[in-house]
Amino acid sequence: MHKLSQDNLTYAQCYTCERKASGIAVGSNLLLAVFKLIVGIISGSKAVIGDSLYSFKDFLTSLVVLVGVKISGKPADDDHHYGHGKIEFVAIFLISLLIIIGTLFLFIHSVKDVWGAFHGTVKPPKFIAFWAAIVSVIANYKLSSYLHCVGQRRGSPAMIANAKHNHSDAVSSAFVAGAIVLTRFGFYFADPLVAVIETLDLIRLSASMLNDSLKGIMDSSISPAIIRQMNHFAMLVPGVKRVASINARKVGQGIWVEIVIKVDHARTLDNGYMIGRQVEETLMKRVDNIVGINLAIEPYMP
């Protein structure tokens, strides 16, 4: 197995560590989502219910990462020549739709409560909602720190992204706590108003996830900067005269590369093969998240 650039760890060791951290993220976010939903219903706080949707979103996306890491670990086969990573995009697409639909319902009810608060028809939430928000701030902050540490050490963009989501949730929960305090001073509109802001932000985040998943399903190309990086590293391999073409696409969290190189036409078949193997090894080592390479060799005619 090739070595990753971050540590002297093999891909299999990082894979095991990432699965463990993903499992912790799934369990923690599910507990937070259920806890805040129950407290939100009991206390009558729309903001806490909205905050639970953040954790529910993180639970689902963490679950996709966990399952995706497991499925992506399977090698390509006769029925799936490019591996199994695309299932992540399909799952995120469906999750995004589900979150958008659920959030729209909360948005409508929260807007009604903001209106009702100004007309004296809405009661303030029970103060237990404040303590639920504080618990959420602490839990999300600790979970974010842990996932970021694992993501940095293992070079996992998905894990780092999950850490950022939990950090955002901690900030959101802090605003919820502030809104609950404001209701104690007669600002009854604060709780549903924060819920409105949360739902709008959730719709924005879900729409972004939906867009990214569609790009993955439609096989959108990798950024030109990464393509140029691949071209640069391939040309560093002795014997490579020219890189004729490079095509790359996302497959789950990984990248599948199709590259055509040109070598001197006077080289033997064995020499050309060894040069090709060195190009593959160089790209796998120097470029993050490559899961597979299709390489073709053509003769270079000056």
What does this structure look like?
It contains eight helices and three strands, in the order H-H-H-H-H-H-H-E-E-H-E. It has helices at 11-43, 46-72, 87-117, 128-154, 157-184, 190-217, 224-235, 269-286; strands at residues 240-251, 254-264, 290-300. It has a three-stranded mixed beta sheet, with helices on one face. Helix 8 (269-286) links the parallel strand 2 and strand 3 (290-300). The longest helix is centred in the N-terminal third of the chain and has 33 residues, at 11-43. The radius of gyration is 24 Å and the shape is elongated. Residues 1-15 have low confidence and may be disordered.
Please identify the structural class as seen in this structure: mainly alpha
Proportion in β-strands: 5-15%
What is the CA-based Rg, rounded?
A: 24 Å
Molecular shape: elongated
Low-confidence stretches: 1-15
Q: How helix-rich are the residues, as a percent range?
A: 55-70%
Short description:
The protein has eight helices and three strands, in the order αααααααββαβ. Strand 2, helix 8 and strand 3 form a beta-alpha-beta unit. With 302 residues, the chain is mainly α.
Structural key phrases:
about 300 residues, mainly alpha, disordered N terminus
Write the layout of secondary structure elements.
Layout: H1 11-43, H2 46-72, H3 87-117, H4 128-154, H5 157-184, H6 190-217, H7 224-235, E1 240-251, E2 254-264, H8 269-286, E3 290-300
Parallel strand pairs: 2-3
Antiparallel strand pairs: 1-2
Helix pairs in contact: 1-2, 1-4, 2-3, 2-5, 2-6, 3-6, 4-5, 5-6, 7-8
